[in-house]
Write a structure and sequence with these properties.
By secondary structure, the chain is α/β, with parallel strands linked by helices. It has one domain: Rossmann fold, CATH 3.40.50. It has nine helices and seven strands; from the N terminus they run βαβαβαβαβααβαααβ. A seven-stranded parallel sheet has the order 3-2-1-4-5-6-7, with helices on both faces. The longest helix is centred in the middle third of the chain and has 29 residues. It is globular and about 45 Å long. The chain starts with 6 loop residues before the first strand and ends in a 5-residue tail after the last strand.
Length: 243
């Protein structure tokens, strides 16, 4: 249990990837803070699963698109000590081809995926730095690397997140804090299963299958652990060879 004594926040923990990451970090010994907004029942169930397996977890419910609500939630989390692992997983899709993309769709996707990273990470960073150990893992996307039709807003948000990852890594490296991004491709989930059939996946993905949330979680678990202390400022792809 290499993360014993570390507190880890996973945003968007109600989704398939976020829940898998939370379970992985809990299995490694971390104390989990499980964020959700629209699906509080999902993180409460996840909290129960982690506790039943012998781990420790708390649900933290707030709207990551709300400046004041997010800052207040971060202040509450810090009352119990620094958060030394942050997994910025929260994100939304709101797809449309660019000529039909509404301003609200553009702003919503940017607000959650990119501004959410800032709202959470910035207030938690200084207490992390004072401990001289920390891990920040930002969940990006293959869309930021190769683009995707109908996802200009999503690709823009994740591309900016990749750039922020590299810049922040330079700022905090001397304090024992690493900052990396993980860029998944097609990962099996209820949403992906409705968007991609097996034939399309076989055409697009060299390994001819979708990835699993557990495979993404294994990568995040490694980057969050002590063995990854010399890896920082990287965007690590997990996409079956798509890019």
């Amino acid at each position: 249990m290499t993360l014993a004594g570390k507190r880890a926040l996973v945003t968007g923990a109600s989704g398939a990837i976020g829940a898998a990451i939370a379970r992985r970090l809990a299995a490694q010994g971390a104390t989990l803070l499980l964020h959700a907004h629209s699906r509080p029942e999902a993180v409460r169930a996840l909290q129960g699963d982690i506790t039943a397996a012998g781990g420790t977890a708390d649900a933290v419910l707030f709207d990551i698109a709300d400046d004041d609500a997010t800052r207040a939630a971060c202040e509450r989390m810090l009352q119990d000590g620094p958060v030394q692992i942050i997994v910025n997983n929260a994100g939304v899709h709101d797809d449309a081809v660019f000529p039909a993309l509404r301003a609200a769709q553009w702003h919503r996707v940017i607000d959650v995926s990119l501004h959410g990273f800032f709202r959470v990470t910035q207030p938690l960073l200084l207490p992390m730095l004072r401990t001289r150990w920390g891990r920040i893992v930002n969940i990006s996307s293959v869309a930021a690397l190769v683009g995707n039709r109908g996802q200009v807003n999503y690709a823009a948000a994740k591309g900016a997140l990749n750039s922020a990852t590299r810049a922040l890594a330079l700022e905090v490296a001397s304090r024992g804090v690493t900052v990396n991004a993980v860029a998944p491709g097609i990962i099996a989930s209820p949403m992906a299963d409705t968007a991609f059939d097996a034939k399309k996946i076989a055409e697009w993905v060299p390994v001819q299958r979708a990835g699993s949330a557990d495979e993404v979680a294994a990568l995040v678990g490694f980057l969050a652990g002590p063995e990854a202390g010399y890896i920082t400022g990287q965007v690590v792809s997990i996409n079956g060879g798509m890019a």
